[in-house]
Amino acid sequence: MTEAFYEKFQSELNLLSINLEKNKLDQFYKYFELLVEWNKVMNLTAITEMDEVITKHFVDSLSLIKIVNDLDTKSYNIIDVGTGAGFPGIPLKIAFPQLNITLMDSLNKRINFLNEIIEKLGLEDICAIHGRAEDLGRDVKHREQYDLCVSRAVANLSTLSEYCMPFVKVGGCFIPYKSGKIDEELTEAKHAVFLLSGKIEKTERFLLPGTEAERSLIQVVKTNGIPKKYPRKAGLPSKEPLK
Question: What SS3 state is found at 55?
């Protein structure tokens, strides 16, 4: 199975012009095994079949390089908001070890899983923190401290922007991973992004390898310091998205 894993994974990585050494491929395989093992006792992901994990979790996570072209050389300070089972943060850390990664999730059980992955894979300059974006976005240790904020969390762009933009330094970027058609969502979120001191700079659209699954990466640049009233208190960004 390991050979099949390596072969499929590297063939899809070639489409991103990423070539990983054997030890990194080994780390990805161990991550896959632990994901499947832990998923038997807690709900981490609906996707556990090997080929799907490779394409829909690992390759999807690494597709960030399509919009951040120097991801493989720069030591960006990145926060992954609502990371869940560690996507995209852990694949980014394995492939590009010079990155500094903070994984953030609101469920402590998932933090335990992430810490196990970090330990078992011997990853450094990466940490998992427990908390809600609405709270940590007001914490001086995290507010406007990151070059990049990424998120594959399922929420509309207005809500997700309010969760994520507070973490981004002025001049940095928030980059959400979105599925399906997003034109209407982009239009609806424009004013919310403006209120949060952001500007939608670029959208990278693509299909995941061997699928009809549409993906988009949206580059939202932080143009100014964010108003103090954002993020609003817990629950409000999802119940009453900015318009």
Answer: helix
Determine whether the annotation assigns residue 82 to a binding site.
yes
CATH number attached to the domain at 67-239? 3.40.50.150
| Residue 138: pLDDT band with limits 50, 70, 90 | very high
DSSP secondary structure letter of residue 73: T
Tell whether 171 is in a known binding site.
Answer: no
> CA-to-CA distance for 173 and 61, rounded, in angstroms?
16
Please give the full DSSP string across 93-145, using - where no structure is assigned: HHH-TTSEEEEEES-HHHHHHHHHHHHHHT--SEEEEE--HHHHTTSTTTTT-
Which tokens hold the place of 112? 């335990």
131 is in an annotated binding site: no
* Each residue's pLDDT tens digit, 174-197: 999 999 999 999 999 999 999 999
Is 46 part of any known ligand binding site? Answer: no
Q: Which pTM was predicted?
A: 0.97
Question: What is the largest distance, in Å, between two alpha-carbon atoms of the chain?
Answer: 52
What is the C-alpha separation between 142 and 99, in angstroms, rounded? Answer: 17
Nearest to 144 by CA among 241, 231, 39, 52: 231
Indicate the domain borders of the chain: 67-239
Residue length of the chain: 243
Element (H, E) at 220: strand 214-222
Check the annotation: does 144 bind a ligand. no
The DSSP secondary-structure symbol of 214 reads E
